[in-house]
Amino acid sequence: xxxxxxxxxxxxxGVPHEHFAGLRAAGGVTxxxxxxxxxxxxxxxxxxxxxxxxxxxxxxxxxxxxRRPEDFSxxxxxxxxxxxxxxxxLNTARQLLVNMDAPQHSRIRKLVTSVFTPRAMRxxxxxxxxxxxxxxxxxxxxxxxxxxxxxxxELPLLVLSDxxxxxREDRHLLYRWSNNLVGFDDPEYGGGDxxxxxATFGEAFKYALGIAFERRENPRDDLISLLANAxxxxxxLADREFCQFWLLLVxxxxxxxxxxxxxxxxMLLADPAxxxxxxxxxVNLAVEEFIRAVTxxxxxxxxxxxxxxxxxxxxxxxxxxxLYYVSGNRDKAVFDEPDTINLRRDPxxxxxxxIGPHFCLxxxxxxxxxxxxxxxxxxxxxxxxxxxxxxxxxxNFVNGIKAMPLHVEGSPH
Length: 413
Ligand code: HEM
Prior knowledge:
Helix 6 (125-142) packs antiparallel against helix 8 (154-163). The protein contains 17 helices and 16 strands. It is globular and about 60 Å long. The protein has 413 residues and is an alpha+beta fold. The strands form six sheets. The chain has a five-stranded mixed β-sheet with strand order 1-4-12-9-5. A three-stranded antiparallel β-sheet has the order 6-16-13. It has helices at residues 17-25, 59-66, 87-93, 104-113, 118-123, 125-142, 147-152, 154-163, 171-182, 194-217, 223-229, 239-252, 255-270, 272-280, 283-294, 325-328, 363-377, and strands at 29-32, 36-41, 44-49, 53-56, 72-73, 144-146, 231-232, 235-236, 299-304, 308-310, 313-315, 320-324, 384-386, 391-392, 401-403, 405-408. The chain has a single domain (4-408), classed as CATH 1.10.630.10. Protoporphyrin IX containing FE binds next to helix 12, helix 13 and helix 17.
């Protein structure tokens, strides 16, 4: 059984970079089995095993597959590694932008990009920097704090509550919903519980629908009002489309940036020379290198729509194909000394935001948040110490940290 990189438990000990290097050396497109995973539902406990898939681990092969969406579909079975359980689940999944192909994808993406412009993101800049400064100040004053919940998670949650049109006090809801959905395989979060997963969707949709109604009746001067009312070809987003996109932002804008910040802090604390290098490097290059080295979303999935060849490997129509950005980002054919964190690396053609028609819509925002947090933290890094074990998420999808107790040296608390 060759299911190592597909097993969520593998990642509790860290990303298996050496193993990925072996897969790249073996050709960059290799067959992987899937482990049997426990699922709970109203009918009881069942053991489910996926079909297995082609792991695409070489940088050039990931780019090629991403740029051939007609051969490597996001909609056929969705963009997530685990197959939808029923046709109804697949149809629901297809209402989410990441699980669409053209022409539907192009329509929704056009509507959303008309609202998520680089300019609109830049206008958030001041509040992002203010939030980061306040979060760091609060944590440092506390003396002992958690690097995930009190620091890394807080910035995306505050930014998202502004972006999604919800009161900041409700941001814990976003934290819980995204933990339940993305942490589906982790025993502490989703625990493989299908009913709980569906209930989380229901709860979040109800909340989003309330916002859609409200912003259509009384539009405000915010992005979510624009999104609720925007039109492409004379058509506005249907309620379900709006809710799906809203929930995608909850998950995409929350987990990703959180794990980027927490993993970056962990890398900085492990290496004082990196802390010095951070002070000496242009912040945009440093951010880009952390995004490469961490790769917060490790993979997305496609399905072959016909018999194809990728990097010399024959792939049959209907086969599952998983694009391992986390591996492409350490491909020595593209990056010098890929396992070294070089905060001046330039160019840095990492794949952390994907590539092709599904390229991340939040890339500007994520870069801005990471830059704001690194700048706010930099003067304090040399006084931060681990105060307990770092606990990693059991997920084969996001490179996540659940807990990272920290202490400020010299603090009385
Ligand atoms: C470091 C942080 C982030 C990383 C690593 C990341 C990564 C990604 C990746 C890899 C994809 C491609 C999906 C695919 O290939 O199927 C994607 C898509 C997407 N991301 Fe991000 N993301 C981040 C932050 C954000 C933020 C902050 C937002 C919004 C607030 C966001 C919104 C989206 C959306 C809406 C899509 C879907 C685009 C489409 O399917 O056309 N992301 N992201």
